[in-house]
Amino acid sequence: MGCGESTDIKMVPLEIGGCTVELYWMDTGVLEDEACFSCAYQALSRGRQKKVDAFLFRKDKRLSLGAGLLLRQGLAAHGINEREAVFAYGENGKPYLPDYPDVQFNLSHSGGMAVAVFANTAVGCDIEQIGTADLPLAAKFFPEGEYRYLARFPKGYQRDAAFYRLWTLKESFVKTTGAGLALPLDAFEIVIAAGECDGRNEQIEVRQNVDPAARYLFAEPYFRGYCVSVCLRTDCDRYRKKCERCPDAQMDQRVCYDYRVTKTCFTTEKEYIFMADCSNNRPCPCTFDCPRHGRCCECVAHHRDNDEGVPGCFFSAEAEATYDRSIEALCRDRGIL
């Protein structure tokens, strides 16, 4: 093993929202050997070599070289030679392959690790070695909700990990959109909510108006001593597939009444934009700690999309407190069963 060859590179597929994202990573410590560094450097295109040359310190050169090797390996898996590939750059500098629109990628590195992701839709990743939380920076540049999330952790490792977790989630979203530094960190908010019933299976959402017609989904692979986030853009094609179980009259209302097929119900892009801007913010009787309180359109869509049954506000206070969101529980609560 050595010289940045494929044996030094690991890959794992991530399933995010029904899409497969290929995550590659490597420990760039193997490139500390000068012979290995030189061998790996020569394997890359001149364009990637220039990116390595742009760094002053040897550690940063190794990280950049490692990211280049991951790019080379990931492209090869799709039948693309990195040395021959033509790269173009978006308005804010995000690279892409104009000849291969279905091969999207993103790179990141920190500490001694480099990561890369590949998908057939817009994707972004960020890795950060966990250091000391910068709460003053969060107070100045993060939305209030994100700052409150960080401040609730005690000073020390818990707060440090929470800070870098939030930072990588934000960075992966920014990199997915391609907005780069043009998008202020307080222009969108990452919301981390506990899962149903037991507080586990946290749900991560982004509140944003950058691209309201799309949904952005996240994954957080574990790397000891690091925070890593992967963000994937989805156009919600499943909403645009007409549900054949629903009568046309119901389809005209753009509401799915058949809970057995909620993942194929029909919604237009226009409706989703409406949902994102919905001004219905009535007090919500649901007692579950959730970022969608009072936002009825978004709440119903979330439950429908994630097979989580009926929203809590459909139940009486006694039935809601059980956190049983099934159709059967609703029928019992209403006296139907």
What does this entry look like structurally?
It is a single chain. This protein is of the alpha+beta class. The protein has 3 domains: 120 residues, Alpha-Beta Complex (Ribosomal Protein L22, Chain A); 115 residues, 4'-phosphopantetheinyl transferase domain (Ribosomal Protein L22, Chain A, Alpha-Beta Complex), CATH 3.90.470; 97 residues, no CATH class. The chain has 12 helices and 11 strands. The strands form 4 sheets. A 4-stranded antiparallel beta sheet has the order 1-2-6-5, covered by helices on one side. The protein has a 3-stranded antiparallel beta sheet with strand order 7-11-10. Strands 3-4 form a two-stranded antiparallel sheet. Strand 1 and strand 2 form a beta hairpin. Helix 2 runs antiparallel to helix 3 and helix 5 packs antiparallel against helix 6.
Helical content, roughly? 25-40%
Indicate the mean pLDDT.
Answer: 81
CATH structural class of the largest domain: Alpha Beta
Structural class: alpha+beta
Level-2 CATH architecture of the largest domain: Alpha-Beta Complex
CATH T-level topology of the largest domain: Ribosomal Protein L22, Chain A
How many domain regions?
Answer: 3
Estimated share of beta-strand residues:
15-25%
Return the string of H and E elements. EEHHHEEEEEHHHEEEEHHHHHH
Oligomeric grouping of the chains: single chain
- Got a strand count? 11
- Major beta sheet, strand line-up: 1-2-6-5
Large-scale geometry? elongated
Which regions contain 5 or more consecutive residues with pLDDT less than 50?
196-200, 237-282
Structural Rg: 23 Å
